[in-house]
Design a protein that fits this description.
The chain has about 475 residues and is an alpha+beta fold. It has 14 helices and 22 strands.
């Protein structure tokens, strides 16, 4: 081994590698099913972090969150505790495509989720980097941390997100770091996985700049208020139990001047200079991609969204970029309402190691290694909601595998989660996968408002839904 064992820890049942949205759901599911579980995170402040958009849900993604809740997951409950605006999207269309979306107080979201983890019986959170996964006779036998701590375990779940060998880039500037300036996972896990016969590939995603809200002119934008009638994400909540004052979001647009600035500086974009090697998400492109690919469009929507109640930071949705700092300043200042915007965090692209998920069974267990599971963006998907859904299924199945019980596989006809996982493990995806309603052949039946009727029994059978909550569905 490249790393030496310095000390042995007491044997555990499941090691969860990563504390993002997938890792949180995986760890909670395992612990709630009676598994002695340790969640390893590079930095405990990164647990449930929202490094990009400050919202949960949206078109098709809202379906995933309600399905997570119906199965016994935590994401829906946590956003109900921490939302600052709630809106039901697509209400002009049929109920099959209605999708709930909530702006989050990003700081509170991660704090509340971390507290849930800390209070959970049989679960321990540990700030340490896992650098080696040990196997014996073709199955997981333990994990090793960078300082040399060896944790014998029966199962492990990889939820490294966008941290594995991550690099953040804007312009000619590249730094080996994870999202939000957090430390990247460069201690050796990539080499370990390759040595285990698990090939990796390189994907890319990105995020827009954050600006000081005091420097924006909201009079030049369209105000977008939250809904008067609040619909909770969690089936355990009522509208009155989560009702609170809401913050507004704002809508503005790019223009031809914006596009001229971008076109004039494409040679300085790492996306077009060849500096970025990873494949980015087609359905969530950077503003450079939008201007090039949709050259006939004279404007693109820009959403100005608050990052929380106790910060002036505003998120510039729709304008992710990897252009240099000086170009970012000029580009954002060309947008109505942003003429005097002060950037507090630059936009950047991020490259990271991930797998081709066709290496996985529909249970999210690796075909080559018994007891090794995987969830989230490490599986080549994008988005908080997609990650959480995979983490929940990986956690349930890791626990059931340890118990020697039949694992959970959701069919495409039963859930958006079934569509998501089936698409990942059976189709060749050459870019970060994003859930969309059009991918679900049975979307007329798989509405977000009937997720509890469809999936509560599955959660009950798996052991995450109590008898009391299950009986509520039956009556």
């Amino acid at each position: 081994k490249a790393h030496q064992i310095v000390y042995w820890e007491e044997e555990i049942d499941v090691a969860v590698i990563g504390g993002g949205h997938a890792g949180c759901e995986a760890a909670l599911a395992c612990a709630r099913l009676g598994m002695r579980t340790v969640l390893f995170a590079m930095n405990l402040d990164s647990i449930a972090m929202m490094p990009c958009n400050p919202n949960i849900g949206g078109t098709s993604k809202g379906h995933l969150v309600r399905e997570i809740d119906a199965l016994g997951g935590e994401m829906g409950k946590n956003i109900d505790r921490t939302y600052i605006q709630s809106r039901m999207l697509n209400t002009a269309k049929g109920p099959a495509v209605h999708s709930l979306r909530a702006q989050a107080d990003k700081a509170r979201y991660k704090e509340e989720m971390k507290l849930v983890l800390e209070k959970q019986d049989s679960l321990w959170v540990r700030q340490s980097e896992v650098v080696y996964i040990d196997t014996k006779d073709g199955r997981v036998s333990g994990v090793l941390t960078a300082p040399g701590g060896y944790y014998p375990c029966k199962s492990a779940i990889i939820c490294t997100g966008t941290y594995l060998q991550a690099s953040c880039i804007h312009g000619a500037y590249r730094v080996q770091t994870g999202p939000g300036g957090m430390q990247a996972a460069c201690g050796g896990l990539t080499d370990c996985l390759r040595d285990l016969g698990l090939p990796l590939r390189r994907f890319k995603t990105g995020t827009p700049a954050r600006v000081d809200g005091r420097t924006l002119d909201f009079h030049k934008m369209e105000e977008q208020k939250g809904d008067e009638h609040i619909v909770p994400f969690s089936f355990e909540n009522t509208p009155d139990s989560i009702r609170r004052p809401q913050r507004s979001c704002w809508l503005t647009y790019t223009n031809e001047k914006t596009h001229e600035i971008i076109r004039a500086n494409l040679d300085r974009s790492p996306l077009y200079s060849g500096m970025i090697e990873g494949t980015g998400p087609r359905y969530c492109p950077s503003i450079e991609d939008k201007v090039v690919r949709f050259a006939d469009k004279n404007r693109h929507q820009v959403f100005i969204e608050p990052e929380g109640l106790y910060t002036n930071e505003m998120y510039i949705g729709g304008m992710s970029s990897s252009l240099p700092e000086d170009v970012q300043e000029e580009m954002y200042h060309s947008v109505p309402g942003l003429e005097h915007a002060k950037i507090v965090k630059n936009a950047y692209a991020i490259e990271y190691d991930c797998i081709n998920p066709r290496q996985l069974y529909p249970t999210l267990e690796f075909k080559k290694i018994k007891g090794l599971f995987s969830g989230g963006q490490f599986n080549g998907s994008s988005g908080y909601e997609e990650a959480a859904a995979q983490g929940l299924i990986a956690g349930i199945n890791a626990a059931l595998e340890v118990k020697g019980q039949e694992q959970l596989i959701l069919d495409r006809s039963e859930a958006y989660i079934g569509v998501l996982i089936d698409d990942l493990v059976t189709k060749e995806n050459h870019e970060p996968y994003r859930m969309m309603t059009s991918r679900a052949e049975y979307r007329l039946l798989l509405r977000q408002d009937n997720a509890d009727l469809r999936l509560r029994k599955k959660g009950y059978q798996a052991g995450l839904i109590s008898e009391e909550d299950y009986q509520k569905i039956l009556t």
